[in-house]
User: Fold this.
Amino acid sequence: MIFYNISQDRLVKMKFSKFYPQLCNSGVIMPLNISDFQAILDINRKINSLTDVKSILKDISYYASNILKSEGASILLVDQQTGNLHFEVAFGENVEVLKDIYIPKGKGIAGYVAEKKQYVIVNDVQNDERWYKYVDEKTKLKTKCLLAVPLVHNNICIGVIEVINSEKGYFTEDDIVLITHFAEQASIALSNAFLYKEIQGKANELEYIYEISNLGNKIFDRKELFYKIAVLISNAFFSERVSIMFVDEETAKLKIQSAVGIPDDVIPNVQNKLNSDKISCRVVNLGKFFITNDIDKSGLGKNKSLRYKSPAFMSVPIKVKNIPIGVINVSEPKNNIKYTNEMLKLLQTISNQVGITYENIRNYEENIEHEKIKKEVDIMRMLQNALLISNFNEYKNVSIFAKMKPAEVVGGDFYDIYNFSKNKIGFVIGDVSGKGLPASLFMAVSRSVIKSYAYQIMSPDKLLEASNNVLVDDSRVGMFVTVFYAVINLDKGILEYSNAGHNLQYLYQMSTGKFIPLRTRGIPLGISSLEHYEVNKLELNSGDIILAFTDGVIEANNKNGEEFGFERLKQVVKNFS
Assistant:
């Protein structure tokens, strides 16, 4: 296609998508000034960056409307679950009202285009039987002519771009050629955004699962534990009010365990009977989530017992073994943000981990109360200690020292050393999520699996991959284990290592007095199958010290509540090396 700028008498040639050969054969020439051409190039550049996709779509709708000299343009997205369309961005008059409008599946010209995945030109909209008049009624505009093109990715319609009311009074096939290019750009921007959001969503889920699990490992006071989880949820969803409620089985009431944004003197007074029509009680009884950005329109606003500034509200059940035992409520979003389905999915993931944490802490409390269980714990501790090597006399040309001091109950920390040959040894240090008997049992399983592969697989990364695939099948109630594994070649003076989500380990170089971090990437074992782990190598010199430890060492508190910290650990190593 040839774009012609009359004012500067210049020709700018550009191959225009799949229509180029046909247009060249037919001799089509479309006038387009340099500023419009520059707009297309500008959007192309933006798509290749990870900027806000909504900003890109706004630019596309703006340029589409201006280049086609029309009153307005909009981009609608398809809800892949319901098939309904909603206005994502729009340019023109009265566009603010469009954000709350949903077009039912198959309705209107946009619904037709999304369903058929074919563009449409309608130059007499008011007499077209497909026309969805509700949009004009809300915007107080009159649509006379309309052009609509589907946004397609992997043969799936993800949206529709519409342009309305051309200045010339009608749209032509030439306009389709241009708007199709904008549609292709919008599809690329959206598909990139969807992929990025999906990856980011999975990363967020893993991060919050780990953080909540980590809190459960450190805090055994129920009120403090769930308060810190409530704070985490408040920060995650940019919301000022969060409450975590559990069912009191004796009174059949739903009570607040911990909360953010609710006065301390109010919390004890919030006790909802399970058979009431409060939103939280409905969520528990039905075992289904509730989400709205306008609770008054939902008809349930009167069922909230506290006063709220914002109409947005999310509530998801907390389940243990698929039985609802509580609820997480999130409200008062900051900066008027809207709650989305992606946010709801993340909250459900967090809720699942909260259910696991609740069950773990309840089990812990019950274990402490029964003397019989305490005796069993003592036996388990004795067996656990028996598994740990304490005599290192057989290892030559290297000095080894190891010690483990468990918490009051048995824990999930462990280490092991493997004597492969006269000048080749391996070692592992690990930390299982959770505490108590479940963690101890999973620790024993993890140690056995790693040991069984240690003498077969010499490469640390491949060993972790093989062990992970086994532990994923054996993992229960969301348990996982962080592991640092390494092989030392004493002949060559080489340390080869891999890390599966464990805290950072270090090499202390005696000659330089520096602590070198032993850093590789990899998630803990037991979370997801078919994971891959990085491996790294480092040269060792005489006098070097490999420092392997779990986070309990640096997070230990003195009587004043001060953490021991890594700086103190480094000083100890220097003083006694």
Summary: The CA atoms of residues 179 and 333 lie 37 Å apart.
